[in-house]
Amino acid sequence: MVARPPVRILIEAMSLGDLPSVQAIEQASFTTPWPPHAYRSELESNRLATYLVARAEGAVVAYAGIWMMVDEAHITTFAVDPRWRRQRIGERLLLTLLDIARDRRAREATLEVRLSNLAARRLYEKYGFRPVGIRPRYYSDDNEDALIMTTEALDQPRMADRLARLRGALDAAPAPTGPVDEADPAVESAGGGPEAPGAPRRPRRTRR
User: Fold this and answer.
1) What are all long-range contacts of 88-91, with beta carbons under 8 Å and residues at least 24 apart?
2) In terms of C-beta density within 10 A (0-12 exposed, 13-18 middle, 19 or more buried), how is residue 199 classed?
3) What CATH number did the domain enclosing 191 receive?
4) Cβ–Cβ < 8 Å for 106, 71
5) Which candidate, 3, 23, 37, 11, places its Cα nearest to that of 81?
6) Does 63 participate in catalysis according to the annotation?
7) 3 falls within a domain
8) Residue 49 within a domain
9) Could you read off the pLDDT of 44-83 as tens digits, one per residue?
10) What CA–CA distance (Å, rounded) separates 63 from 75?
11) Cβ(146)–Cβ(115) under 8 Å?
12) Looking at the 3D structure of the chain, how many domains does it have?
């Protein structure tokens, strides 16, 4: 089998033109996806919000969002196209969100994650998040509890050292090589990885 060449990943601001691709990933990733108008409303009217996409060869393969609320950065959404998981694209997005939070002088970053999503929790712990509480019956599809996770102070040297080390590891890691054929049985196991559906979910007040 001929090895596929690496693919360059570009992370940039989400635009209105990205919304059809974002919605397709949303529907493939969450049991209770946002309706199509929700992201448009966020982009056009929510001054607290910043949304990013990751592109591979021009196509949107992942997206994420963050709200800046006074001195707290709240990660509102995070998803990777199922065909592009297990290639550390989600890690690159998460690191970019934390960079934004630090640049905007957020004291900490926080998110919610399903209690059952152990792989996602391990990813967040890797990037300095720690459990601080529970939101009972947070997820409307099955009433599962959400685990609240928060970083230590983003301006502390220990956090800066952690992110610098992780950035170096990402820079040294193999680049993504392209989508995995959905007919490949390996896709099923990839769905349980750190970028799996149901990672952080939006605050209830953002539901439409």
Assistant:
1) 88/170, 88/173, 88/176, 89/9, 89/54, 89/56, 89/61, 89/62, 89/176, 89/195, 90/62, 90/123, 90/194, 90/195, 90/199, 91/123, 91/127, 91/166, 91/170, 91/194, 91/195
2) buried
3) 3.40.630.30
4) yes
5) 23
6) no
7) no
8) yes
9) 999 999 999 999 999 999 999 999 998 999 999 999 999 9
10) 12
11) yes
12) 1
Confidence of residue 6 (pLDDT cuts 50, 70, 90): confident
Please give the residue range of the domain that contains residue 59: 9-206
Give me the catalytic one of 26, 91, 112, 195.
112
Catalytic residue of the set 51, 124, 138, 139: 124
Question: For residue 151, is it within any domain?
Answer: yes
124 catalytic, yes or no? yes
Residue 2 belongs to some domain of the structure: no
In terms of Cα–Cα distance, which of 117, 110, 111 is closest to 142?
A: 117
